[in-house]
């Protein structure tokens, strides 16, 4: 596994005072620059805000089992792309520690944990849900676009023991997705809702494993709801 210092990233800086941060995780085989450019192509501009720094890290290159062990930029290894598969927890937890360093970097600059939002596309969405619901339950929220958790995910097991308020989840899925089936995303949403998570789930007809304009507009509105511009608090967060 690559060291934390090897986790490269690209950033869209806020146009005004920086009071919040968003960490956006790409899908398997992509990069931070790749998904940043993909979003820009759809929106015809960067995913940018007056007060939010948007961070697009790149997953380290590592052997990926669904590609017969070939090297790929992935957040974790998985045995197969299926809801019924077991999780490779050693791989997931190792990356959670690396991404925690990225979160702590933002905290060290004075950004409160409840002013940090996590999310991603496909595998990046799954990674964000592990990171949020197992290790950072005090962030502002989490989103998963065309993503899912395994049927017996450790996330579900750990949330059964939690009584605190949990970050809100925003999910979006194409109903024509043949790589990550829409029912996997729906089932993930249903289970998390049953465990006390406030959730929203949107589906787009005839949309495959991709991003689209309507989805990104809804996501931007949701991000601004979780991280409003009128934040005036001077709350400090403790580095975990």
Automatic annotation (TrEMBL):
As recorded in UniProt, its EC number(s) are 3.1.2.22
User: A single GO molecular function, which one?
Assistant: palmitoyl-(protein) hydrolase activity
User: Where does it mainly reside?
Assistant: cytoplasm
Gene Ontology CC terms: cytosol
**Top-level taxon in the UniProt lineage:** Eukaryota
Q: Which reaction does it catalyse?
A: S-hexadecanoyl-L-cysteinyl-[protein] + H2O = L-cysteinyl-[protein] + hexadecanoate + H(+)
Which Gene3D superfamilies does the entry mention? alpha/beta hydrolase
Sorted alphabetically, the keyword list is: Acetylation, Cytoplasm, Hydrolase
Domain (Phospholipase/carboxylesterase/thioesterase) ranges:
10-224
State the compartments where it is located. Answer: Cytoplasm, Cytosol
- Pfam families with a match to the protein in the record: Abhydrolase_2
Chain coiled-coil ranges = none
Q: What does this protein do?
A: Palmitoyl thioesterase that catalyzes depalmitoylation of CGAS and KCNMA1. Acts as a regulator of innate immunity by mediating depalmitoylation of CGAS, thereby preventing CGAS homodimerization and cyclic GMP-AMP synthase activity. Does not exhibit phospholipase nor triacylglycerol lipase activity, able to hydrolyze only short chain substrates due to its shallow active site.
Q: Which family does it belong to?
A: Belongs to the AB hydrolase superfamily. AB hydrolase 2 family.
Q: What is this protein called?
A: Lysophospholipase-like protein 1
Q: Which organism is it from?
A: Pelobates cultripes
């Amino acid at each position: 596994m690559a060291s934390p210092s090897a986790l490269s990233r690209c950033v869209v800086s806020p146009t005004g005072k920086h009071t919040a941060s968003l960490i956006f995780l790409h899908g398997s085989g992509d990069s931070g620059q790749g998904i940043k450019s993909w979003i820009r192509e759809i929106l015809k501009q960067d995913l940018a805000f007056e007060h939010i720094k948007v961070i697009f890290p790149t997953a380290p290159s590592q052997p990926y089992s669904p590609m017969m062990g070939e090297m790929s930029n992935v957040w974790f290894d998985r045995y197969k792309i299926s809801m019924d598969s077991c999780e490779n927890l050693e791989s997931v937890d190792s990356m959670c520690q690396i991404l925690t360093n990225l979160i702590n970097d933002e905290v060290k600059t004075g950004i409160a944990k409840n002013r940090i939002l996590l999310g991603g596309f496909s595998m990046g969405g799954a990674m964000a849900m592990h990171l949020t619901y197992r290790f950072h339950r005090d962030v502002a929220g989490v989103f998963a676009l065309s993503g899912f958790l395994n049927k017996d995910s450790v996330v579900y097991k750990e949330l059964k023991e939690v009584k605190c308020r949990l970050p809100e989840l925003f999910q979006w899925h194409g109903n024509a997705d043949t790589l990550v089936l829409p029912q996997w995303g729906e089932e993930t949403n249903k289970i998390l809702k049953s465990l006390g998570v406030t959730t929203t789930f949107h589906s787009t007809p005839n949309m495959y494993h991709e991003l689209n304009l309507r989805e990104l507009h809804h996501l931007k509105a949701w991000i601004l709801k979780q991280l409003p511009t009128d934040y005036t608090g001077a709350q400090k967060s403790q580095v975990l």
